[in-house]
Amino acid sequence: MLPQAIAEPLAPSRDARGFVVEPLSLTQLTAQQNVHVVWTAAGAVRGNHHHVRGTEVTLVLGPALVRYRDANGIQDVQITKGTLYRFTFPPKVAHAFGALGPEPMFLVGFNTEIYDSEHPDALPDHILGADDLAKLV
């Protein structure tokens, strides 16, 4: 049986300058071996993989569609413009991110595994396509 993912809307501190958020607790932060920042063009899809060993924590700033397959089956979270979510994807949970709307999607990912191109932790697992996004725009 697949493990369960966690999807959490975040409430960052906002003012006229923008917003600030602490993405991980100190305990979570010390477990991370990889961090990546991703800027995805409107209408494009990232991810479509699962991790063999690593747990990935991803912050996503909408507009975006996040799809994952966990113990509860296929789940879709549609994130509106300016809304911030944190997702935790345990090993074997397929996940993908789609940039909705006319603007790029921004995300920051953390993983408990070091990136190693010789022994990849991420394996392809297609669950979201650009045609799925087109139906929502």
What are the defining features of this structure?
single chain; 137 residues; mainly beta; Jelly Rolls; 7% helix
Outline of this structure?
The protein is 7% helix and 49% strand. The protein has two helices and twelve strands.
SSE blueprint and pairings:
Layout: E1 6-10, E2 13-15, E3 18-20, H1 26-30, E4 34-40, E5 45-51, E6 56-61, E7 64-70, E8 73-79, E9 84-89, E10 94-99, E11 105-111, E12 122-124, H2 130-134
Antiparallel strand pairs: 1-9, 2-3, 4-11, 5-10, 5-12, 6-9, 6-11, 7-8, 7-10
Oligomer: single chain
Could you state the order of secondary-structure elements as H and E? EEEHEEEEEEEEEH
- Low-pLDDT stretches are none
Indicate the radius of gyration in whole angstroms: 15 Å
**Spatial shape:** globular
The helix content is under 10%
Structure, described:
This protein has 137 residues and is mainly beta. It has one domain (25-134): Jelly Rolls (Sandwich). The protein is built from 2 helices and 12 strands; from the N terminus they run βββαβββββββββα. A 5-stranded antiparallel beta sheet has the order 1-9-6-11-4, with no helix packed on it. Strands 8-7-10-5-12 form a 5-stranded antiparallel beta sheet, with no helix packed on it. The protein has a two-stranded antiparallel ribbon with strand order 2-3. The longest helix has 5 residues, at 26-30. The mean pLDDT is 95.
